[in-house]
Design a protein that fits this description.
Aspartate Aminotransferase, domain 1, 43% helix, 14 strands, globular, Aspartate Aminotransferase, domain 2, 7-stranded mixed sheet, 2 domains, alpha/beta, 400 residues
Length: 400
């Protein structure tokens, strides 16, 4: 196999391919399927999944001891490790099942009034668009959506386009760190800084960021950040988090009122307890999340991520050559890391293509539309190889 050379950079060679082939053995994925859809639900490495099941067995062995006596300390330790992963204090972040749950807490807590505006962009995840629509119907606030033109080439232009939507009524800035429908990394950091200066609350959807890019939420200065750990961080399903800057934690109200609301224990932390102490639930996914962080650290994940990025670049270039349709963003690591949207020729039946790719070629990849443009969205994780990308391109050529 020849080295993959993209724009003069050689970052994926025979050694990288061998490393990814070896990593594949550490996952439970069906070897008959080329899995290019890590971005939807993730995939948990075998040793992390085994630790997850071990926690579940401990719980079932002594349920009262585990949930009644040990759970609080175990979760506190897991939050310490999550805090280090995000560079925040442990008492400013809490585990929740997923980012949708986390951002529902925020959206339904903020004291919005009928004259207030929620500023966002047209690249957001549909479930969260529904969340904010629900909130506006309850509060009388309104959503203002800024349209970002594609293709994108200059992050500063995106910052200015979003900021053009700010008015004296803007109370919330809501954006994805990495968008779901278009797989674009948005330049949220300068927008957060501007919003703080204007007294605008910042709410960031980090569904695809943890594990795919390095995070320092303290330096970012964000007010509210919800993230998934079951995707690119490779924790078990049901592991997400909510970070809230200490100065605005008093705004947060739990969706479920239970024992953690207005705790009377002298050792309680109101923000943590209100969201963490909510009746009986299985905390095994939360407790196994630190094992996912350790898995990455032990396997030089920065190098693996860079190799994955190069494979995404190969897929983008191959699809553009095959279809004649250019990508949505420039070939620049500021715009994408391990995930990219691959536009298809006009008139392509994206759903039918998705079906044929799986049924006829055993390639698992999601499809959709961006505006009128049919697309595939490729995700590359450490278990993917150059052979996987080549199989996708060959299958698309045969189908389209």
């Amino acid at each position: 196999m020849n080295s993959l050379s993209v724009s003069g950079a050689v970052a994926y060679d025979d050694a990288a391919e061998a490393r990814h082939v070896a990593l594949r053995e550490e996952f439970l994925l069906d070897p008959e399927v080329v899995f290019l859809n890590h971005g939807s639900f993730g995939a948990c490495p075998r040793p992390v999944f085994e630790r997850y099941q071990a926690w579940q067995r401990e719980l079932e062995c002594r349920p009262v001891e585990f949930l009644g006596r040990r759970q609080r300390d175990l979760l506190a330790e897991a939050r310490q490790k999550l805090g280090r992963y995000l560079n925040v204090q442990a008492d400013d972040v809490v585990y929740l099942p997923n980012v949708t749950s986390a951002l529902n807490v925020v959206a339904r807590s903020l004291p919005l009034q009928p004259q207030d505006e929620i500023l966002t962009a047209n690249h957001e995840y549909g479930a969260l668009e529904r969340t904010w629509t629900f909130v506006t119907e309850k509060t009388g606030a309104s959503i203002k959506m800024q349209h970002l033109p594609t293709p994108l080439s200059d992050p500063e232009e995106v910052v200015e386009r979003v900021w053009e939507g700010v008015t004296e009524r803007t109370r919330v800035l809501f954006l994805s760190h990495i968008t779901s429908p278009t797989a674009i990394r948005l330049p949220v950091e300068p927008l957060i800084q501007r919003a703080r200066e204007r007294g605008i609350w910042t709410v960031i959807d980090g569904a695809h960021a943890p594990g795919q890019i390095d995070l320092d939420l303290t330096a970012m200065g964000v007010d509210f950040y919800g993230g998934n750990l079951h995707k690119w961080a490779m924790a078990p399903k049901g592991a997400g988090f909510l970070y809230v800057r200490p100065e605005v934690q008093s705004l947060v109200e739990p969706l479920v009122i239970s024992w953690g609301w207005r705790p009377r224990d002298p050792w309680s932390t109101p923000f943590i307890d209100a969201l963490q102490r909510q009746a009986t639930h299985d905390p095994a996914a939360y407790l196994a999340a630190p094992d996912a962080f350790a898995f990455q650290q032990q396997r030089d994940w920065p190098t693996v991520r860079q190799e994955c990025h190069e494979l995404v670049r190969l897929a983008r270039m191959g699809m553009a050559e095959l279809t004649g349709v250019q990508p949505l963003v420039a070939d620049d690591p500021r715009w994408f890391s391990q995930m990219a949207t691959l536009p298809l020729p006009p008139g392509t039946n994206a759903e039918e293509l998705k079906r044929r790719l799986y049924d006829e070629h055993r390639v698992e990849i999601p499809s959709g539309h961006w505006g009128d443009t049919p697309c595939l969205r490729i995700s590359i994780q450490g278990y993917n190889t150059r052979a996987d990308v080549e199989r996708l391109l060959d299958a698309v050529k045969r189908c389209v």
